[in-house]
Amino acid sequence: MQRMFCKLLLPHCATKSQPVQTAHVFRALYSSKSKVPDKPMWDSINYDKLPKLPDTDLALVEQLERISLVEFNNEAGLVRLRDAVKLANQMHLVDTEGVEPLDTVLEDRECYLRRDEVTEGNCVDEVMSNASKVEEQYFVAPPGNIPMKKRDKDHLSRVLDSKADTDDVV
């Protein structure tokens, strides 16, 4: 990849023995358009500004298990769930003021749109014939690969209660 890049764009580019120079040349080409900083920027996280973690009740845990096909029926599972929410909550601290929304990851290229004109139509039967299962002219998504087993709700309630007793803040 590095050699191909060098051969195509810069004939006198660095070789395998000089990868730093190649990276520098590559960065120089795109630095004016890229929104990624040249060096990492480290900020400490102010945990006081993060939103409060939602209460983890039995209904929420069962819904998340059903949707994600991941079991949270023990303390390790609940800790993993809460840690994931804490990590996602850090996104609230990102200052996005003045940042334009991203239309495409190809920020250095013009992405042309075509006209929205109907060229063919009335092909519902042909399109639906491609689906493995259809109900009332809607595609039916395949079921999850592992069905969740019904288990004792008392067990999950005990795990939630014991975790709430020992839960510490951040």
UniProtKB/TrEMBL annotation:
<dbReference type="GO" id="GO:0006450">
    <property type="term" value="P:regulation of translational fidelity"/>
</dbReference>
<comment type="subunit">
    <text>Subunit of the heterotrimeric GatCAB amidotransferase (AdT) complex, composed of A, B and C subunits.</text>
</comment>
<dbReference type="GO" id="GO:0032543">
    <property type="term" value="P:mitochondrial translation"/>
</dbReference>
<protein>
    <recommendedName>
        <fullName>Glutamyl-tRNA(Gln) amidotransferase subunit C, mitochondrial</fullName>
        <ecNumber>6.3.5.-</ecNumber>
    </recommendedName>
</protein>
<keyword id="KW-0067">ATP-binding</keyword>
<dbReference type="InterPro" id="IPR003837">
    <property type="entry name" value="GatC"/>
</dbReference>
<dbReference type="GO" id="GO:0070681">
    <property type="term" value="P:glutaminyl-tRNAGln biosynthesis via transamidation"/>
</dbReference>
<comment type="similarity">
    <text>Belongs to the GatC family.</text>
</comment>
<keyword id="KW-0436">Ligase</keyword>
<comment type="function">
    <text>Allows the formation of correctly charged Gln-tRNA(Gln) through the transamidation of misacylated Glu-tRNA(Gln) in the mitochondria. The reaction takes place in the presence of glutamine and ATP through an activated gamma-phospho-Glu-tRNA(Gln).</text>
</comment>
<dbReference type="GO" id="GO:0030956">
    <property type="term" value="C:glutamyl-tRNA(Gln) amidotransferase complex"/>
</dbReference>
<dbReference type="GO" id="GO:0050567">
    <property type="term" value="F:glutaminyl-tRNA synthase (glutamine-hydrolyzing) activity"/>
</dbReference>
<dbReference type="GO" id="GO:0005524">
    <property type="term" value="F:ATP binding"/>
</dbReference>
<dbReference type="Pfam" id="PF02686">
    <property type="entry name" value="GatC"/>
</dbReference>
<keyword id="KW-0496">Mitochondrion</keyword>
<dbReference type="GO" id="GO:0005739">
    <property type="term" value="C:mitochondrion"/>
</dbReference>
<keyword id="KW-0547">Nucleotide-binding</keyword>
<dbReference type="InterPro" id="IPR036113">
    <property type="entry name" value="Asp/Glu-ADT_sf_sub_c"/>
</dbReference>
<keyword id="KW-0648">Protein biosynthesis</keyword>
<feature type="region of interest" description="Disordered">
    <location>
        <begin position="149"/>
        <end position="170"/>
    </location>
</feature>
